[in-house]
Amino acid sequence: MWIDAASERASDRTVACRLFFSACNRSSWTARRWQRAQRWIAGIDADSTQVKLGMLASIGEGFLGRIATSSLASRFLSYLRSTSGMGVTELVMSDVLEVHRVPCLVDNYAWLLHEPKAGLTAIVDPSEVQPVVEALRKTGYNLDYIINTHHHWDHTGGNIALKDKYGCRVVGPDADRSRIPRIDISLKDGETWKFGELDMVTFDTPGHTMGHMSVYFPEAAAVFTGDTLFAMGCGRLFEGTAQQMWASLSRLSLLPPETKVFCGHEYTQANARFAISVDSENPKLIERKKVVDEMRSKGLATVPCTIAEERDTNPFLRAPDAAVRAKTGVPSGAPDAEAFAAVRRAKDSF
Ligand SMILES: [Zn+2]
C-alpha cells in the first residue's frame, strides 16, 4: 500500500489521506468513494491529528482493528488525547440511566451506559479497546453489550477485542448487519429493545451511512445519534442522499426539547464557526458559540447538548429558515430538503 501510494507522486497530504481512507474502509473501497474522499481531504490539514492517526492506522495491514488492539497504538492515541483537550472518562448523567463519557481516538466519544436496576452495562460506539477497559475498571462494571450506531471503524473498532474479553453481545442496525463486526442482535426501525428495565427505541437515521441507527431512551430523555446529529452539525453524506439525511434529522428534532443528545464526536467548535457563517444574526447561536469557545479553551467537552439547543442553533435543522435560505441562495418556495442540501454543500466546502 505504501509503494502504491508513493508511485502516484502525489502530495504528502494526498498520500497520507489515501492511506487514512484505505485503512478506514478497504473492503468497500471504490473509485467513486475515493473521489468523494478527495473532496473532503481538500478541507483538512495534512498535519491534523486525523491524518497522523490515519498514517498510524496504515501500519501493518492497515486495518483499524489493529489500533484497537496494539499497545503501541493505544499509547500513541492516549498521548494525542492528552494534548488535544479531550479529557478522561467522566460521569455526565445519572438517574434511571447512568452515562459516562469515554473519549477515544482523537475526537471520538464512546458512551458507557449503566442501568442500575438490572445492573447491566453497555458501551455505545467503541472505536478503541483501552479507554473502554479503563472506564470499566474505574466504574467496576462488567460489559454486557456493545451498541453500534453504524459500521464505520471509528465506531466499531473495539467490537472484536471487547467481545472476546468480556463475552458481551453486539447490538446494531439490522440494515447494516453485514458490516457490523460480530453483531448478535440486529434492530429494525421503530423496534424497542430492553436494556435491563429501560426501553431503547431504534430509529433508522440514514444519510451518513445507509444503515445508520440512532437509539432513544424515553425514560432517561437521552438519544445517541452517532454521526447523524452533532452539536450544531450533522454527519457527512458518505452513502446516503440529502433527502435521507434531512428526513433523519427532522425526525430526531421532533424528540422532546429537553432530550439530551449524545453524539459520536467533539466537533462542536468547528461546527459553530460554520454555523455563524450561514446564520450570523441568530442571537441564540451567537451566545452558544461564545459558551462553546470558552469551554473548549478550557479543554471541556461540549457533548451532550439538548434537542432544544439544536433546534435553536443547528444550521442544518435551521436550513428552511428564511435568513439561512437567503445566505445559501435557496428560494423561499424550494423544498426544505433542498435548503438542507445547500447548507450541507456549503459546509463541505467551508
Ligand atoms: Zn461515521
UniProtKB/TrEMBL annotation:
Pathway: Secondary metabolite metabolism; methylglyoxal degradation; (R)-lactate from methylglyoxal: step 2/2. Residues 107-265 form the Metallo-beta-lactamase domain. Its cofactor is Zn(2+). InterPro entries: Clx_II_MBL, Glyoxalase_II_hydrolase, HAGH_C, Hydroxyacylglutathione_Hdrlase, Metallo-B-lactamas, RibonucZ/Hydroxyglut_hydro. Pfam families: HAGH_C, Lactamase_B. It catalyses: an S-(2-hydroxyacyl)glutathione + H2O = a 2-hydroxy carboxylate + glutathione + H(+). Its EC number is 3.1.2.6. Belongs to the metallo-beta-lactamase superfamily. Glyoxalase II family. This is hydroxyacylglutathione hydrolase. It comes from Ostreobium quekettii.
